[in-house]
Amino acid sequence: MKIVAVCGMGIGTSVLLKMNAEKVLAQLGIEATVTAADMSTARQLGFEANIVLTTPELVPSLQGLPAEIISIDHFFDLAELHRKLSAALL
Q: What is the pTM for the complete model shown?
């Protein structure tokens, strides 16, 4: 399982999202590689990933990737991440 966490620059929000996604995946007992990426890198990694996590504003820019794109409104809300990742993976 490959997951890409995406933000505009790939150094702030995506790293926070990556860390919180890893916490939720551990709670769910799912092994996955989570990578933080900027938009340019995400367009490449998205073809290898199963899931792309990003902000609502960036979803349109990622359309067309074969990965499932999941919009996350609140990166610090582990319950939101848990709910959306569970729906996608279980």
A: 0.92
> Which tokens hold the place of 71?
């919009």
Could you confirm whether domain 2-82 is CATH 3.30.43.10? no
What is the DSSP code string of the chain? Answer: -EEEEE-SSSSSHHHHHHHHHHHHHHHHT---EEEEE-HHHHHHHTTT-SEEEE-GGGHHHHTT-SSEEEE-S-TT-HHHHHHHHHHHH-
Residue appearing with tokens 């996590």: 53
Question: pLDDT tens across 1-20, in order?
Answer: 999 999 886 568 899 999 99
